[in-house]
Write a structure and sequence with these properties.
With about 300 residues, this protein is α/β, with parallel strands linked by helices. The protein has twelve helices and twelve strands.
Length: about 300
């Protein structure tokens, strides 16, 4: 099969490319970074260099493909992130339609079911709503939960404050997922011309924040590590003190509040995956410990 992968060689796209190449598929990886060309080709794939907002480029890249994997690229330099997400989603939809693509797998996110309170995940909701207008295609929306790799952002806090703290924590339950487990599901969907479920949630493990802190703490030699729950105002002041831009802080506080009050996982609880991914918290804790020690 000829399969197009967007997202360059990110945390999910790279293992996805590796898996599909290993299975003998003809893979084209779209990246805006010219420097990625050598690395992409080293994996056995073809590089297509261009931007997601260039519909002509995307149409040419998508033409002749048996399946296309799309995702919303992060872009924190945009003044209006909503406009950016909308432009990219429309570009994807136009290119898919013009190229005659029949199978699409869109990397969405938990929170895409919410009209508000989803922070930057609003991009997933926008993409789903735009792509839903396409006809004559089979599309699957992958909705992974909280990425394990997001926990790495607390490394500095642990080093300097000796704890984890944000506006969710304690006995709040967090559904986590490994990029490799997401890639495995994406590969499975891309290889099929049909889909049993239009929306597919992906998760690897579920723990309380207290339990997460304990497991990570034991892995880094800090078994007393705690995850404290701050108020929205306390978390906001802390982020602002660390120089995080106001619009990023607002979105982060918003989504964390939805984790704390349970709104973010409400639709997930109604449509949980039949099986959890292979990578458990203890597995990720080894990666966390390595990154933590290297960043000293």
């Amino acid at each position: 099969m000829k399969i197009i992968i967007t997202g360059s060689l990110g945390n999910i796209s790279k293992p996805l490319v590796q898996e599909l190449v290993k299975k003998g598929h003809d893979i084209v990886v779209i990246s805006r970074d010219k420097e990625k060309k050598i690395e992409i080709e080293a994996l056995g794939a073809t590089a297509a260099i261009g931007t997601m907002e260039d519909t002509g480029f995307l149409t040419a890249a998508f033409t002749g493909a048996d399946a296309v994997y799309t995702m919303m690229p992060p872009n924190f330099t945009e003044g209006n992130i909503i406009d950016f997400f909308t432009r990219v989603a429309i570009s994807y939809a136009s290119a898919i339609d013009q190229a005659g693509v029949k199978r699409v797998v869109q990397l969405s996110s938990w929170g895409a079911s919410l009209e508000e309170g989803s922070g930057f995940m609003v991009g997933s909701r926008i993409a789903e709503s735009v792509l839903d207008k396409l006809t004559g295609i089979t599309i699957t929306y992958l909705r992974p939960c909280y990425l394990y790799t997001n926990l790495l952002r607390y490394a500095d806090m642990i080093k300097h404050a000796g704890m984890i703290g944000t506006n969710f924590g304690g006995e709040d339950k967090l559904v986590m997922v490994s990029p490799e487990d997401i890639a495995a599901v994406a590969a499975e969907e891309l290889e099929t011309s049909f889909s049993r479920e239009k929306i597919r949630y992906i998760a690897s493990d579920e723990r309380t924040c207290n339990d997460i802190a304990r497991v990570l703490g034991e892995a880094i030699g800090k078994p007393e590590l705690k995850w404290l729950t701050f108020s929205d105002e306390q978390a906001q002041k802390g982020m602002e003190k660390n120089g995080i831009p106001a619009f990023i802080t607002a979105k982060a506080i918003e989504i964390n509040a939805s984790i704390h009050n349970g709104r973010l996982r409400k639709d997930y609880d109604l449509h949980q995956p039949l099986a959890m991914g292979k990578t458990k918290l203890e597995d990720f804790a080894k990666e966390f410990a390595t990154e933590f020690k290297q960043s000293h």
